[in-house]
């Protein structure tokens, strides 16, 4: 029987001990007796999926090993569970365990106790290192550094410098980006499905320049990716409405840079269509898909994900837009065996810990849908004679106003969050400041409506046509119209307040 010398090194660093040096320490413990050396270079100690370790364990089961010697405990395992299982096998085959630097002997009770204490701290160290690596990763993400991974179709890598640190960024590949522009423009037209786009690309022999086949899953992934969008304030508001954590302020969303979407530091089991707790960071590269086109496609993708849940007869194409005017929570659909069939109720009314008594009136879904269809038609009629602003300067002024409007809404929310527990002096200041901001908000809203950019003129014309043929539209298309036109509908005590996107 032999002594087994085991050494592991995950990565080579100046401050880490090499495999060769570890074995040298271990050989000293053998006092010149015969031994077998097992090594794992480039493997982490987080688990036991290591070829050298597995070979050693097989030799132990075969009765070849009498003692295992390591330089340090964490070289063989950093997991309490893995270590416990390993020690059980050692005991079964009467194999002793020695750490050449920590000096303990598993043949004594105190030695076994000290061993267990050491492995607890080894696992703590591994988890601490893991947390530091994760924090460092997201810190670099938020600064716009290239973090590796597959390069998105439409881009290539180029070198750059950010905050005096060399990194990489994406650069547009014109041949690929032209294909993406075609795909986005086709999907923005609600008459085209993903399958229609794949058939069109194949029929016209438009080949994927990276050799892959076009398929609906790949195209859907491209359509959801914000790495292509010219991120302006509309994109900011979209991600804000979806509950994403946006790192950059609204003023940075000028329509030049694209975005990075990260999973975030909070683990979640939500599907990819849910943006809650995701991280949005402006990327250093330029986007090439206009925000209106990207948003039209992204909203369609979102609706498609939800269609299996939302297209049931008991639901309404207004779901997600209707809020309780008292508590601010969503109104959800309930079904009743009456001639009205469906009605909206506050999701917080009657909930434990909630003081909301509901919207203050019965909100029948059919009545509200009919009312909103009339309101949509009236709203669209206001824009029929508006012309498109062609000068970039006018459009820039419009975007600046929208950015400021978003900033005002955020400032008001922040002030209102401080009302609870505010002193009399602070409360007076909050009232005055909110009134001041609200007056500025109303003035900006009027200016935006009057100026009304409308590079959306074509889009509004398309929506107007949809509204004229409303009865023939699919549930999904009705939701798409509502998503484009309406930000939120608040209902309280018989009053309906509509906040429009146009």
Mean pLDDT level = 81
Cα distance spanning the termini? 82 Å
Q: Tell me the fraction of residues in β-strands, as a range.
A: 15-25%
Q: How many structural units, i.e. domains?
A: 3
- Tell the overall outline: elongated
What is the helical fraction, as a range of percent?
40-55%
The sequence of SSEs as H and E is: EHEHEHEHEEHHHHEEEHEEEEHHHHHEE
- The total strand number stands at 15
Described by strand count, sense and barrel closure, the largest sheet is:
4 strands, parallel
**Which structural class best describes the helix and strand composition?**
alpha/beta
By DSSP (H or I, 4+ residues per run), the number of helices equals 14
């Amino acid at each position: 029987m032999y002594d087994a010398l085991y050494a592991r090194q995950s990565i080579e660093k100046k401050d880490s001990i090499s495999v060769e040096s570890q074995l040298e320490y271990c050989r000293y413990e053998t006092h010149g007796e015969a031994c077998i050396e097992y090594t794992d270079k480039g493997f982490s100690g987080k688990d036991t999926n290591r070829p050298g370790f597995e070979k050693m364990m097989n030799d132990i089961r075969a009765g070849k090993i009498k003692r295992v010697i390591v330089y340090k405990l964490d070289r063989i395992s950093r997991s309490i569970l893995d270590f416990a299982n390993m020690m059980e096998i050692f005991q079964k085959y009467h194999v002793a365990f020695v750490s050449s630097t920590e000096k303990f002997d598993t043949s004594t009770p105190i030695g076994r106790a000290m061993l267990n204490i050491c492995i607890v701290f080894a696992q703590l160290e591994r988890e601490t290192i893991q947390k530091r690596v994760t924090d460092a990763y997201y810190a670099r993400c938020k600064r716009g550094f290239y973090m590796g991974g597959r390069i998105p179709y439409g881009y290539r890598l180029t070198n750059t410098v950010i905050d005096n640190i060399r990194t990489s960024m994406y650069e547009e590949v014109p041949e690929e980006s032209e294909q993406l522009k075609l795909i986005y423009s086709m999907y923005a037209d609600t008459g085209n499905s993903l399958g229609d786009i794949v058939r069109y690309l194949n029929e016209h022999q438009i080949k994927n320049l990276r050799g892959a086949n076009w398929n609906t899953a790949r195209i859907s992934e491209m359509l959801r990716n914000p790495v292509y969008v010219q991120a302006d304030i509309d994109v900011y508001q979209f991600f804000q409405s979806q509950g994403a954590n946006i790192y950059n302020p609204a003023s940075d969303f000028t329509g030049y840079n694209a975005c990075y979407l990260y999973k975030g530091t909070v683990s979640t089991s939500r599907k990819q269509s849910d943006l809650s707790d995701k991280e949005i960071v402006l990327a250093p590269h330029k986007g090439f898909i206009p925000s209106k086109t990207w948003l039209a496609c992204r909203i369609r993708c979102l609706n498609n994900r939800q269609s299996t849940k939302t297209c049931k007869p008991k639901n309404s194409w207004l779901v997600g837009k209707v809020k309780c005017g008292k508590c601010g929570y969503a109104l959800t659909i309930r079904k009743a065996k009456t001639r009205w069939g469906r009605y909206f109720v506050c999701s917080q009314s009657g909930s434990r810990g909630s003081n909301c008594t509901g919207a203050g009136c019965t909100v029948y879904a059919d009545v509200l849908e009919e009312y909103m269809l009339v309101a949509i038609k009236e709203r669209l009629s206001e824009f029929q004679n508006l012309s498109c602003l062609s000068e970039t300067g006018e459009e820039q002024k419009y975007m600046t106003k929208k950015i400021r409007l978003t900033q005002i809404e955020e400032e008001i929310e922040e002030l209102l969050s401080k009302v609870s527990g505010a002193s009399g002096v602070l409360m007076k200041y909050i009232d005055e400041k909110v009134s001041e901001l609200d007056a500025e908000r109303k003035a900006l809203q009027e200016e935006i409506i009057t100026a009304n950019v409308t590079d959306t003129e074509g889009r509004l014309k398309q929506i107007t046509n949809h509204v004229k043929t409303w009865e023939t539209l699919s549930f999904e298309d009705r939701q798409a119209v509502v998503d484009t036109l309406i930000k939120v509908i608040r209902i309280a005590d018989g009053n309906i307040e509509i906040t429009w996107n146009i």
